[in-house]
């Protein structure tokens, strides 16, 4: 039985690793993750990597569109008919477009600076987060001003240049690219 998944979002390009939390997983079973949608999109299958009896992992396949998809684990992944669940409470994976950073103000920061980021594809995602270097700011630290603008308070960080990136699901879940990151400069706090 599948209880939950993490992360619960993925880029439409797929390729990320998803943890499936549940009960009764057996390393001897040949399991598949079914990515099934009610929209007219074919079901995709991914072979399971066994972690332990409560956690398995699946590679997330690409999706042609932004959508929600049910995650079902089956031992018979050879057809769509085997990806049907009698459980109405299957976890949902949210496919989204990659967030894009179009601007950051200011680009010279210090601890406590109010930072505004403008961009695209910030909406529809409760897992939107910011990374400054190795510091992760989860969604709960962000103020969403609109679908294209977010604001946050700059954390303490060493003086010098750093990459500021916008991502989904936190640290390491989506690679920084020129579309979702920008270099900022940290300075000593003004006196």
Describe this structure in words.
This protein is mostly beta strands. The protein has no helices and 18 strands. The strands form four sheets. It has a five-stranded mixed sheet with strand order 2-9-8-4-5, with no helix packed on it. Strands 11-18-17-13-14 form a five-stranded mixed sheet, with no helix packed on it. It starts with a strand and ends in a 5-residue tail after the last strand. 28% of the residues are buried.
Give the strand order, joined by hyphens, for the main sheet: 2-9-8-4-5
CA distance, first residue to last residue: 57 Å
- In round numbers, the mean pLDDT is 85
Global shape: elongated
- In terms of quaternary structure, what is this? single chain
Supply the helix-strand structural class: mainly beta
Biggest sheet layout? 5 strands, mixed
Low-confidence stretches are: none
Order of helices and strands: EEEEEEEEEEEEEEEEEE
Helical content stands at under 10%
Record field, number of beta strands = 18
The proportion of residues in beta strands is over 45%
Work out the radius of gyration.
Answer: 19 Å
Treating each run of at least 4 consecutive H or I residues as one helix, how many helices? 0
Question: What is the compact description of this entry?
Answer:
The protein contains no helices and 18 strands. The protein is an all-beta fold and 191 residues long. It starts with a strand and ends in a 5-residue tail after the last strand.
Describe the secondary-structure layout.
Layout: E1 2-6, E2 9-11, E3 17-22, E4 32-36, E5 44-47, E6 49-52, E7 55-59, E8 67-74, E9 92-96, E10 100-105, E11 108-109, E12 114-120, E13 128-132, E14 135-137, E15 143-146, E16 149-153, E17 160-168, E18 181-186
Parallel strand pairs: 2-9, 11-18
Antiparallel strand pairs: 1-3, 3-7, 4-5, 4-8, 6-7, 8-9, 10-12, 12-16, 13-14, 13-17, 15-16, 17-18
């Amino acid at each position: 039985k599948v209880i939950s998944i993490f992360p619960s979002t993925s880029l439409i390009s797929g390729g990320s690793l998803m943890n499936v939390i549940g009960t009764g997983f057996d390393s001897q079973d040949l399991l598949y993750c079914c990515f099934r949608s009610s929209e007219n999109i074919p079901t995709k299958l991914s072979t399971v990597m066994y972690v332990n009896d409560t956690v398995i992992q699946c590679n997330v396949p690409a999706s042609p569109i932004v959508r929600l998809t049910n995650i079902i684990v089956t031992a018979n992944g050879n057809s769509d008919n085997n990806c049907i669940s009698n459980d109405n409470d299957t976890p949902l994976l949210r496919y989204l477009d990659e967030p894009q950073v179009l601007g950051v103000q200011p680009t010279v920061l210090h601890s406590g600076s109010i930072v505004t980021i403008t961009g695209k594809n910030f909406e529809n995602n409760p897992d939107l987060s910011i990374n400054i270097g190795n510091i992760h700011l989860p969604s709960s630290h962000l103020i969403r001003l609109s679908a294209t603008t977010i604001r946050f308070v700059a954390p303490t960080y060493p003086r010098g240049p750093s990459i500021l990136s916008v991502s989904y699901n936190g640290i390491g879940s989506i690679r920084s690219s020129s579309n979702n990151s920008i270099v900022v400069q940290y300075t000593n706090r003004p006196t």
